[in-house]
Amino acid sequence: MDKILVRGGNRLKGEIVISGAKNAALPAMAASLLTSDKVTISNVPQLGDVKTASKLLGEIGVIVENKKPNVLEIDSSDLNRNEVPYELVKTMRASCLLLAPLLVRCGEVRLSLPGGCAIGERPINLHIKGLEAMGAKIRLEHGYIIASANRLVGNRVYFDTSSVTGTENIMMAAVLAEGETAIENAAKEPEIGCLANMLRSMGAKIEGDGTDTIKIQGVSSLSGCRHTIIPDRIETGTFMVAAAITGGELLLKDTVPQHSEALIVKLRELGVEVEEKGSSILVRGNGEHRSVDISTSPYPGFPTDMQAQFMALLTTAQGSAVVTENVFENRFMHVAEMKRMGADIKVKGKSAFVKGVKELSGAPLMATDLRASASLILAALAANGESTISRVYHLDRGYERIEEKLLRVGANIERLK
Ligand code: EPU
Predict the structure, then answer these.
(1) How is the chain split into domains, by residue range?
(2) CATH superfamily of 22-228
(3) Is 106 labeled as catalytic in the residue annotation?
(4) Helices 164-174 and 125-133 meet at what angle, rounded to 10?
(5) S-S: 184 plus which of 129, 158, 203, 229, CB 3.0-4.6 Å?
(6) 216 has which bridge partners?
(7) 164 CA from centroid of ligand 1 (Å)
(8) Closest ligand 1 atom, CA of 121?
(9) Is 86 a residue whose pLDDT tops 90?
(10) Does CATH place domain 3-19+231-416 in 3.65.10.10?
(11) pTM
């Protein structure tokens, strides 16, 4: 299995072009099943989860072509299966995004119930409750959810907890339902807006995306479209921290600075210079930063997907900080690895108390999930000496050519096959 070797201590300097957002590309691929016309999606990042999603679509009779880099052409006119098996759901939880599109397209869907994962229990009860409110009959059998409906009927769908993929599933169910659906306490993440734009260009009637209430008027059919995926705000954030942690200077291009506002505010509080310039962000670290507390929450709050990377930065900050994780109940798996590098962190319940140390020291490290892997690479870039990060497949699931991008701006990083 591949490993990543990092020799820490280099200041990063240069430009990095940001890729398309993984968490916007996956729902767009699922939404392509809502029409039998051809759908073309651009700015799709080439990463593990997109490959898994392409394979999944292939298994149900959908043709996914990748003739040009970062462009997918999806033709689901011969879709011939309505089952999403355990083998695929267990490798990628976002497979649950096929629940609504397959139900709408086939009248019935069999989706393996995802189990718990490295960052928490992650149930999909709210997706199910929403579909039931729209008239779907749902039962659980042998670990599979079996949902059926003739045509869904619009209704008021209230989310007890804001859920990103839950909101996306209900949006995809509502666009072809009879009448109006109002999704209340809807997720407001930029990926929701990206999906709404795609659905609108297919002919859907959607208002209010980006606010607490999304209203959708069902239509009788949708057509093919061309759609472009938004830039990845978490990749952007990861490289912002890379500049800060190495005391370097990076210009991140082709991104949307407004999507990273919570992180930008925190980086400035910490003493890092951040300039927003149109679709670019310039980040300048000076090698010294103060501790600041962070507390994760749904967008526009501080993203849980940036918590581990920001913690890497806090390990060498001046002073102490409290990191509170409010979205997932088990997202501190990176702490044990950071402690092996000399970090001073204590976890109590949903908070981690981080006391800055003078320096981290390189060590053999093990990644446990996608964002934890990224945080270990960041810590290793700043550490004294060599680190090897194993279980790199986690990283490859969600970052496009990360070590290549870091190498070009001066990191001493290589992939060991
Ligand atoms: N929740 C429920 N019931 C549900 C759905 C969610 O209790 O039916 C809870 C979850 O357990 C969690 C909270 O609601 O405590 C929020 O979870 P959400 O449903 O928003 O997460 P998700 O849709 O499964 C997406 C991203 C994650 C990201 C979260 C939060 C995709 C494909 N995944 O997951 O991305 O962390 O939103 O922003 O969009 C990642 O990219 O590394 C990643 C994990």
Answers:
(1) 3-19+231-416, 22-228
(2) Enolpyruvate transferase domain (3.65.10.10)
(3) no
(4) 20
(5) 158
(6) 181, 206
(7) 6
(8) 11
(9) no
(10) yes
(11) 0.97
